[in-house]
Amino acid sequence: MTERKLSMITLLLTMIIMVNSGIASAHTLYIVTEPESALQMEQDVIIAYGHPEAPWVNRRSYEIWNATLHKPDGGTVELELNELDVIVGVAKMAEYWKSAVELNQKGDYIITASREPAIYDPSWMVHFEEPPPVRLIYEYSKTFIHVLNEGDWGKPIGPEAELIPLVKPYGLRVGDTFKAQLLYNGMPVKGKYEAAHETECIHYPEEAQHGYTDENGTFSINLTKPGMYLVAARYIVNESGNWTATHDAEEVWGIEAWLRPFISRFPLLGRLIHFLKKIGIYQPVDYYHEGEEVEYDIIHYKAVMTIWVEEE
């Protein structure tokens, strides 16, 4: 067997372990722009669902809803999204959405996006003695583009869950403290926050900054490295119900979904997955299907913000 085939099999086994351990479940919707901007500049905007520190797991797993540019004068522009695939290593692996914005006004632009809601059941990934609550997840992301004049960067945009910066979200430097507030339906709420540099996994406490907001939804993080930071906060509503699935979960969570860029180029992987299923190393999960009524126990709201930090 060639070295290339061995490396692909190793990658496949690694991803199966990741999916089964729940790492793949912990994705984040985030927006990337250029750190610097100028008037009359057209700038690319990238929307990603995954991990900046591990771009090979970024996928267009859901539909993007309400991707919008909020202009300094109060006007809005709905972003036209195109699919973007990026070669990473030996195959097409990273998937993104791409748009462009025209910066024809002085002031602060805010870009927002949300993904379609979805059900997540932790039991898909890990065996629990006591079944954990099944979550209906809503996720909202935002970032900022500053052009010459300071504007209304702290204004709420209005999604159900939103992070509001309490200090300017640009011009930040290593050593600064960044402060933000979590809102739910426009009101401050207590929730859990997490933040990480783009080279760190936001979900690992040993790498990222984790904690709980105060009663007013406020929290602070330390900016220790130059580059992009992901800042996220979560709010849980203890409300159960039924959700009509808008997609097949197998296309999001199944191992074939995660490895589809590889399988198209390396048919051996498809046969290997079938073999691993047959011998029981990989056990397929009974996910929900489009149109199915799915019960959930709680509603999980997640608000995300990207900021950039310069050297001291």
Please provide a written account of the structure.
The protein is mostly beta strands and 312 residues long. The chain has one domain (3-310). Helices cover 14% and strands 44% of the residues. The protein has 5 helices and 19 strands. β11 and β12 (187-188) form a beta hairpin.
Helix-strand blueprint:
Blueprint: H1 3-21, E1 28-32, E2 41-50, E3 64-70, E4 76-78, E5 82-88, E6 91-103, E7 107-120, E8 135-147, E9 161-165, E10 172-173, E11 177-184, E12 187-188, E13 192-197, E14 209-212, E15 218-222, E16 227-237, E17 241-244, H2 250-253, H3 255-258, H4 260-263, H5 267-279, E18 293-296, E19 298-310
Parallel strand pairs: 8-19, 10-19
Antiparallel strand pairs: 1-2, 2-6, 3-4, 3-7, 5-6, 7-8, 9-11, 11-12, 11-15, 13-14, 13-16, 16-19, 17-18
Keywords:
nine-stranded mixed beta sheet; single chain; mainly beta; 312 residues; globular
Number of strands: 19
Biggest beta-sheet profile? 9 strands, mixed
Helix/strand/pairing class, anyone?
mainly beta
What is the percent of helical residues? Answer: 10-25%
Instruction: Estimate nothing, just give the exact number of structural domains.
Output: 1
Our Rg estimate from Cα atoms comes to 20 Å
